[in-house]
Amino acid sequence: MNRAPPRALIRMSATAVSAALLAVAASCGARADDSASLLKAMTEYTAAQKSITATFDSDVEIITPDLQKIQFTSSGQLRMARPDKLRIRRTGGYADVDLAYDGKTVSLYGNNAKAYVQADAPGTIDQLVDTIQAKTNAALPGIDLLLSNSFDVLTSDVIEGYHIGQGVVDGVECEHLAFRGRDTDWQIWIQAGAQPIPRKYVITSKTVAGAPQYTLRIKDWKTEAIADADAFAFKPPEGATKVGLDSDVMVEFDEVPAGTTSGAKK
């Protein structure tokens, strides 16, 4: 027969939980001062790398009108050569997209739509990202980790930050940092040691009911020079059609189905 727990036990449990919460809060407060220095070390490390290749998995959440949370998953590859070469391929259940930038022209190909868009964009990767975000309002979550001024961009809206402690991502020991902003909160797991590589990045939207998140997990990080001369050259596949940014087929380039609303943005 089930019996109600003694009142004394309930009080003791509540006290233990309260003590644990206070201990966590005190621990976070003690580590608050070094969250910025750990983040700064990561951004300086990534900015100093002339070449970066990596693979990634990403999850984006949306909230339906009846408040159901749905998650969409994709994977991809990144190749970057500073200051002006970038290639990102992302494949998911609803998108198969290839972005190529050779320092002069940016090309975006959607394999599902068998269509591509192109634009002249002479300059650097940083300038390209600024242009894309200004003209298309695209969030491009995760790209801010690789900009030359990444620290300034990441902390531009930060109200407070904490060094939560240690964590393990894909078997790698990491420093776990958490930051609060006005519209979004975000967390990052940075590989511990001499190579402070970003391993996991989570953005939580606070302005959307249900607080949807965007999660990025980075793997296979390498900094060797990219030997492939055509790594950043875009050649339209046979049968592909060139379209404008205002074309209806652009919906096929998104990683969530048409008619849904993206969740976390930063």
Automatic annotation (TrEMBL):
Pfam families: DUF2092. This is Outer-membrane lipoprotein carrier protein. Keywords: Lipoprotein, Signal. PROSITE patterns: PROKAR_LIPOPROTEIN. Residues 1-32 form the signal peptide. It comes from the Bacteria.
